[in-house]
Design goal:
The chain is 22% helix and 26% strand. It is built from 8 helices and 18 strands. A hairpin with a 2-residue loop joins β2 and β3. α5 runs antiparallel to α6. The N and C termini lie far apart (47 Å). The mean pLDDT is 93. Belongs to the FAH family. Pfam families: FAA_hydrolase. Keywords: Hydrolase, Metal-binding.
């Protein structure tokens, strides 16, 4: 099931073919016409919420209610709700928002694909940089947080940040947390995964420090594209999901979550120690090789000999997975500092 957030009121919808269905409205119609519910709208708001995090928190009951609503609507020639409102919308006629609420968090794994880190090490001659890369790979999981309040969605333009000349892309797969999790064991983490989505972890590569200000290079308006929806499918193996990045149609990254150094289960165990993960939180698993930063050679001073693989205004960037769909953004504005 593909769970989307759509329209001006940011309602939960289920993508069916080329349409998106307002399942809260469809479930209210089902309750009104097929049951003896006294307050069908109130019951629908509780059982199949229109708000994403409430829908996620409702768990299997919300998914079951959504399936009931879809089955009912497929048999009903009238696709309008109890008050005559539209319930089925063509995908090409609505706005899909990033499927994350503002109060949720994006935990992004750092240095979590060995091939990405090895490629970066191979392309630098600076001993200090090599030591830093080795330190990032060694030991337990490492992560940073991206601000969910300023995420971008599939189809959005991404404004080139003025503070950089070196804007980079990172194709990633993220798991969506389905219930409160604290101090969980890695072996139990699978039951806390509600679904999966794509993330483009946009990154600034100028003068990156892996100290306290590292997050400055990872956070700016639009710095995480999330979507286009959340795939809820228990048959998916979180450690066997392919992901690719294309720049202007050229494949730059092609990887699979099976190559993650620390699995989603290990990340979940680490992040939940003494801290609660909440329904709707995302854990993004890191990126494989093929980013501009790991594909470009740096000299002994850490400067890029050729920065042509970094993004330019007008570039079209697509992150895709055969299991999850695709998100596409166009870079707008001007490359900072370049005349």
């Amino acid at each position: 099931m593909k769970i989307a957030v759509f329209g001006p009121n940011r309602r939960v919808g289920v993508v069916v073919g080329d349409d998106v269905v307002d399942v809260n409205g469809a479930y209210a119609k089902y309750l009104t016409e097929r049951t003896d519910s006294v307050r069908p709208a109130a019951r629908a708001a509780h059982e199949v919420p229109a708000e994403l995090n409430s829908f996620i928190e409702q768990g299997d009951d919300a998914l079951a209610g959504a399936n009931t609503a879809l089955d009912f609507l497929s048999e009903d020639s009238d696709k309008t709700g109890v008050d005559g409102e539209q319930l089925v919308f063509p995908l090409n006629a609505v706005t899909l928002h990033a499927p994350i609420e503002g109060q949720s968090r994006i935990f992004a794994a750092l240095a979590n694909f060995a091939d990405h880190m090895q490629a970066a090490a191979d392309n630098t001659s600076n001993g200090s940089d090599k030591a830093t890369l080795d330190r990032l790979v060694s030991g337990g999981p490492k992560y940073f947080i991206k601000d969910p309040r300023v995420v971008s969605a599939d189809g959005d333009d991404l404004a080139y940040p003025r503070r950089t000349n070196l804007l980079d892309y990172e194709a990633e797969v993220a798991v969506v947390i389905g219930k409160r999790a604290k101090d969980i064991a890695a072996n139990d983490f699978g039951s806390y995964i509600w679904g999966y989505t794509l993330v483009n972890d946009w990154s600034i590569r100028d003068n990156v420090s892996f100290g306290p200000d590292f997050q400055y290079s990872k956070n700016f308006d639009g710095a995480a594209t999330v979507g286009p929806w959340i795939v809820v499918d228990e048959s998916l193996d979180p450690q066997d999901i392919p992901v690719e990045a294309r720049i202007n149609g050229e494949v730059r990254q092609s990887g699979n979550t099976k190559s993650m150094i620390h699995s989603f289960a290990s990340l979940g165990e680490y992040l939940s120690r003494d801290s609660t993960l909440f329904p709707g939180d995302l854990i993004s698993g890191g990126t494989p090789k093929g980013t501009a930063v790991d594909s470009s050679t740096r000299d002994a001073e850490g400067k890029f000999a050729d920065d042509s693989l970094f993004l330019n205004p007008g570039d079209v960037v697509e992150v895709s997975s055969t299991a999850l769909g695709s998100i596409t953004n166009t870079i707008s504005g001007s490359r900072g500092g370049k005349k």
